[in-house]
């Protein structure tokens, strides 16, 4: 299902071949958590095989079409997506799966192919992960605001496993912090995609800070 370049361990491979794709109406960020209910036959089979192999799948954002396959409907999606690793798979009844996936490394599609039963596979090139960039002083309020939000949810009785942001937390890292706000804030899918594709984590966080300010969210450090 997934082939590494000969002689390279999977941890350092730059290209994945025949990666199964999951086109969705959302954008998955590295480190993000994605819960889904699966009922389409094409994806039930894919999830079973990926889970059994312990392999990743690729989440890509739809630009045309819907998450549920409609005969004759065109399906199109972005060239840049995110690897997803299955953390939990549950099948409460035949024909239904509940899964939870964690976002990993970003990738760019080099070649895509739609199989006869409607499943997409692609050869992809992995993109470099964000380098660790400390949160500068003028953006510390963005970290404080997220910490404050999580604290408020805990006080309301929300369990850790139900929080919108999961451990391990990295409030001192620009990329991680920006990604979590991108998941939480309401914004058009196109903007969310553009932010995910940005290679500079500091610039991503600066843009997030502007969005928070425009939304009237208090990012003061106190």
Structural description of this entry:
By secondary structure, the chain is of the alpha+beta class. The chain is about 30% helix and about 30% strand. It folds into 2 domains: about 10-125, Archaeosine Trna-guanine Transglycosylase, Chain: A, domain 4, CATH 2.30.130; about 135-215, Orthogonal Bundle (LON domain-like fold). The protein has a 5-stranded mixed β-barrel. α3 runs parallel beside α5 (about 200-215). The radius of gyration is 18 Å and the shape is globular.
Question: Main attributes?
Answer:
single chain; 222 residues; alpha+beta; LON domain-like fold; 2 domains; 5 helices; 7 strands; disordered N terminus
Blueprint of the fold:
Blueprint lengths: L14 E10 L8 E6 L2 H13 L3 E8 L11 E2 L2 E14 L2 E19 L5 E7 L13 H16 L18 H11 L4 H9 L3 H14 L8
Parallel strand pairs: 1-3
Antiparallel strand pairs: 1-7, 2-6, 3-4, 3-5, 5-6, 6-7
Helix pairs in contact: 3-5
